[in-house]
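Entry type: protein chain
Record version: 2
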Amino acid sequence: MRLKMIFVLLVVYAVTAAPLFLPGELRVVVQPATADAVEVYYEPVSPVMLRSYEGIEPFNRAQMLAEQRAEAYPDDLAPPYIAHGGPYRLVAPYVTARGRALAAPVLSGVYWDEGRQVRYDIVPEVRQVANSQAALNRALHEDGLLDEPAALGAGIDAETNRVVVETNTFDQNLRHRLAERYGGLVAVMWDPLAQPLRLL
């Protein structure tokens, strides 16, 4: 019965909300952002489950270095991420002109893999974004975001440069409250099957 109800809801929202299927992404924008409401999207399958990770270790190491840069200059940079789809790319987002200069240098290092030394030199792909590491962290940790009754969890999505709130309810009032408080900093990931975590 529960699954049937969820299926009916999905059909209703597909008809009434005109969802946007983003090319190359397993993400359906159920309701786009407006001036007074944040975006709501649905992710049928996590992209993590479908990606290949062969040969990714140099990029993982470079990402850790890029994260250290972002933590050191949180008002100029945003969280970095590894772009999938074709060859791996390390994307180093920036917000300010100074941030562009900070994000651009090559990320180099050495690590050991199965008894051999591996050197990497990764040139980041710099990309301007709207929200800094500092702004995203404030929204996530300091502004009471998880006090929202409908919020099951929240985290920073580096690829979309937003804080994502996870919920299992389709709450229009939540969209409006988040837009009023955070503007374009926040989006909602709707998962009708998600359950709150319970401590044993």
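Comment: The chain has a mean pLDDT of 85.
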